């Protein structure tokens, strides 16, 4: 459905995207995950046509779109700058999005009201964009993109300005509409929980390169390298250097109370249903979960389960 072949992007001498090839299936919810500056937005802008590739090819539904402008690529987009017309009310903004659709005015209004209700922006339809908060603008931008039911949707951190409750309901809504209308979606985030929760597959990129592509469970259980492992899971995996190897272990796999290792608790944070304990052990810092508060400075014994061994690099 969407194919990238050896896509590379230079900004001057800087290689922001490095030989990326991807196959995104029709109707797939495909996540691009990476740390800040890894190239996520650039990758999305290349697919949208907002940036030109330095080399490589991009195909959408078997059409080579590499040299086509954004307007000819037939994709919906929600980017961080919300792209609302400032001198049009929200309702009119959404109407413009439906301009070229061959459906009746009634049907258009119905669609707008439906989606507005779901994203809780009904009471904003009569306002101008500059009368809205960042989070409200973001919801309007999502509504404007979804109301079209495009074949392909590109979303760059579309929920970053929403508070927790809205973020959860909005992402469920995005997923539901995406499934209902079989919209192939590429969704950029740096939030690994969000990626695991809603992705059909996740692509982890770092320094412009693809590190791993896989289902959430695969990426979580079998991270290809230390970079992927460090990005996935919260609280994050700890890394210990032992005999030239790097051992990665998730906090829930550090068993406190008994075992061959002994360390000192350097910090204890309350995380709601558990405490997150930081243990100092031979120049390593290990995160563990505890049901009870443990005093800083205490000695603890522990064991490690289900750890991963990585090459000492990256
Ligand atoms: N127009 C540009 N000119 C020069 N360098 C750029 C340009 N756009 C992006 N870059 C560089 O390319 C790299 C990737 O940027 P990009 O915005 O794609 O990262 P990102 O993963 O989306 O980051 P974030 O999560 O912080 O938004 C960065 O080092 C950035 O400085």
From TrEMBL:
CDD domains: ABC_Carb_Solutes_like. It holds the Pfam family ABC_tran. Keywords: ATP-binding, Cell membrane, Membrane, Nucleotide-binding, Translocase, Transport. The keyword Cell membrane applies. SMART domains: AAA. It comes from the Archaea. The keyword ATP-binding applies. Residues 2-232 form the ABC transporter domain. One of its GO terms (molecular function) is ATP binding. One of its GO terms (cellular component) is ATP-binding cassette (ABC) transporter complex, substrate-binding subunit-containing. This is Sugar ABC transporter ATP-binding protein. It comes from Saccharolobus caldissimus.
